[in-house]
Request: fold
Amino acid sequence: MTTTTPQFAPSRRTLLAAMAAAAALPSGRLLAAATRGEAQPFSWPKLKALAAQMARQPYKVPPPPPPGVVAVTYDALNAVQYKASATQMKGGASGGVRFFPINHFQPQPVEIYLVEGNMARPFHYDPALFDMPADGPLAKMGANAGFSGFRAMNAAGTSDWLAFAGASYFRSSGALDQYGLSARGISINSGGPGAEEFPAFTKFWIGRGEDGSLLVDALMEGPSVTGAYRFVNRKTDAGVIQDIEASLHIRKDIARLGIAPLTSMFWYDQAERARATDWRPEVHDSDGLLIHNGAGERLWRPLNNPNSPTADSFADKSPKGFGLLQRDRNHDHYQDDGVFYEKRPSLWVEPKGDWGQGQVMLVQLVTTDETNDNIVAFWNPAAPAKAGMHYDLAYRLNWIAGDPLPEGPARIVDWWQGAAGRPGQTVVAGATKLVIDFEGPSLSGLGRSSGVTPDVSVSNGKADAIAAYPVVGQQDRWRLMMDVTPAGKTPVDIRAALRRNGAPLTEVCLAQVGA
Reply:
């Protein structure tokens, strides 16, 4: 299994902050005019045709990054600011678009086009677009530098809500104005087999929809795939919505194709206290994977920071949705008043059309801190991705703070692991106590005599001392406890839920012990 370091990972807290707000530029209009090239006809069908044409040609390795970009480190980047008056695509309730320079983390320049009507003008890099130290590494590169990506600003121009930068990565600050996990256009061989490949968005066309939405079209290039992407981006009170169309052309066989991949960080939570070398009680951008499968089940998989990399699959047909969520919104559980993990967005994928047979995959890598994204989730079609194949896909991404499925069975809201056996008595050797808390209206008014029964199965080993009961003093909250003993050294997969008269009362918890 290959350990990956996503492009956003080294700078997850501060790369975008380093580009935040800037000084005014009196000559901003003249500068903007000077950086725009000659207009060319553009449309979404033209971009799809371009991607198809390129797929029939040999892949061209991009030229090496400009000399000197390795010196644009985190500290150097902190001293660079995009000038507010050079903001592009302003209008209506939009704060417009600003751009990132290439840097040590994202060294490959991308081409930018600004679209008005059906005409696109190239927007060229110019050092005068940025305030920067005259003796800094970016200034020394002069016009040989370039853009690494861009971000969409809020109406006041004080913060951003969407950013594209590095390979095919992008992310949103969601409903609570706090960046966290990322998405990307495609994943290739995440978690193995073989080396992971990172295709890149090499060209962007940025425009406006008739409804005021931000339109982003992107060309993806890589050794194994070429693609055209259209993102219709809308900022709402409930969060950020992205409607995505993708036209993918497979250049060569791909062992594991990942559709709608999500990338996050999980170091430890209340169930992973052995990992807590840091003083904070919990550190994670997401705490679980939620799947709404084609059969209508709602499956919750608590995230792990495993002892060695793992790749788990959840077979499905015609999935209704999946996503990495941050359910724990209690500041006291994190105690971080600098990066606010309780405000990190959840990201929910809604397929459009029938995605057929396949599996939701969860790849979990080992991390010893919060600087690297170690979690990847994506849809993997059952049919192998072979050279010459073409995919037309559509889906919606919801960057939200609440639950994507507010109605339905009770949710898993907490889980813990600890020593097995009764408190105060001899510990059961070789076993782990697993505790799962469910909460929701479906449990309202139910007591110990209401016929609520636990439904538990394990992949290997056994589960003993299984008990379910309402939590004293808590409304609509039940607790399921068990002692899990593995049959060997293989991790134990647990499937656990609460039922009444055979009908589900809760989500299904797909916990893993011993990973």
